[in-house]
Specification:
Sig_transdc_His_kin-like_C; 5-stranded mixed beta sheet; transmembrane helix; kinase; single chain; transferase; Heat Shock Protein 90; EC 2.7.13.3; alpha+beta; 3 domains
Length: 462
Amino acid sequence: MFTTLSGRFLILTVVFVMLAEVLIFVPSIARFRLDYLTERMERAQIASLALLGADEMIPENVEAELLENAGVLNVVLRRDAMRQLVLSSDLPGPVAKTVDLRDPMALVLIRDAVVRFVTPTPEVIRVIAEPARGGGVQIEAAIDTGDLYAAMIEYGLNILWLSLIISIITSVFLFLAVRRLLVMPIKALVGHMKAYAAAPEDARRIIEPASRIRELNEAETTLRDLETQLSQSLRQKERLAQLGTAVAKISHDLRNILTTATLLADRMEMVDDPTVRRVAPKIVKSLTRAVNLTEGTLAFGRAEEAAPALQLIDARPFFEEICEGEQLAVAQKHVTIRHDAPPGLTLRIDPDQMHRVIGNLIRNARQAIQVSGGAGEVIVAASDIGDAWQIRVTDTGPGLPPKAQEKLFQAFQGNVRKGGTGLGLVIASELIRGHGGTLTLEHTGEAGTTFLIHLPRSVDAG
């Protein structure tokens, strides 16, 4: 119960009501003490006037009875300039303090009441007040605080029980109201969410806003829009998945056909016919691009990249191997590929996956330089910046066109060279994300292009 919204609201209600009662109780107990003392002074005045009105002396037992009924120990009445001890008895002890009721201050009354409430030891106090209805100038009385303390305790207990009853009744009504107005609508909203989650493709399970509470109606409206968008997105993804499966099957068969056609085209270069020998290389290049397109489509569609097997490796020989392999693949010798890795630098990477990433970036840079027709250089640099490693692949090519920069990491849209698929950077970016890092375009322009790989040392650093 205490873990539910309504249960916690019930507890908070009881606590706050009791806190309010405590704030009310302090001035209430002060008022009770003032009324108690005022009533005793009025009784004392009546008793003293009755004694003064008698023609003869009254017996001691009658005087004691008057004092007992008034609840005081003695009475001093001042009329005109005379101060007269009207009623008296033996005091149980010395007078501890004087309480003046003629012009009481609220804070003083509250302070004295709290002190009396927490002090059970009885004592004798001297109370001064103005007589009621012009019965004199001043009246004084000695009062034993034992009865006052008992009366204040009884009054406090009554207040306590009344507060508990009020708290319970208020809490129950608030509990029922909150449960009816908030908890049940929220449960109904959660029920709609669970029903929709069980079959999100079923449009009948999309919630229809019906709550009359504005906040809940806004939540239902937002949930309806979200469920509608999600259902549409799921249907679109399902269709794309079906289309992707079909494209993968077609690409697989088409790759085999194109591979065979490429082998046949290679043999055409052996024919003596000059026209055939001139056209055959172009056919081979076209078929090669088609094979690369189908292979890239298959690789991207499978999405079966394994999690990286991270290990510490020496960066310098790793980059040397990649650069040497890519340099051998360069047909034009005016493109130079080299690395700039400091000795002793170690990287925590998956060597196979990082080899694919760096190789892809180098090939893209090399092809950009080759397309420009001039000489150029591709440099792979690595550095340790403390909380991360950084790898930069920089070329001196012509830079990327604005259109390519906008969709650089989008499949089939970020291709720069004619005939490309735009999948290379997408796959490379996914592999780097698997390392917990990022692949970004740091700079591009007429002076060249730089791609930055940022690999954090820990999860928090990323």
